[in-house]
Task: structure prediction
Amino acid sequence: MQPPFNVLFLCTGNSARSILAEAILNQRKGANFRAFSAGSHPTGRVHPYALQQLEAAGLPTAGLRSKSWDEFAKPGSPKMHFVFTVCDNAAKETCPVWPGQPITAHWGIPDPAAVAGTAEQIARAFRDAYVALDRRIGLFLSLPLPVLGQMAIQKEIDRIGHQ
Result:
């Protein structure tokens, strides 16, 4: 595999976790990556706490929007090299499945948008999701992708999903 690599982060609503991951990777990527996000059943809006978390981390939020994965399945769409689902199987969410040949992994993160409580509790859930995604994306970016075979890459990104 040779860069640049297109990476799609998927969750159900595309309002929080996948949006956070898209913004993190696009900020940290260098010239080798381009991140996107989508949902199988998008909410149509980015969660305000996701935007607040990104702004607190100093990441740009312009252009972020909740969108359907259908945008990436039509002719002329960028070819995806990696697809990561970030929905949380433990919470019994339905994670979308991406067709085609990209390398895929499940990086389950509890849904901060589902947290009920005080503003502080909700903000903490978004911070926790951000930190977990930032850590996993950092590990992913440290992989020497151009020199690893597809099976080695698959093994490593699966391992990262359990971090």
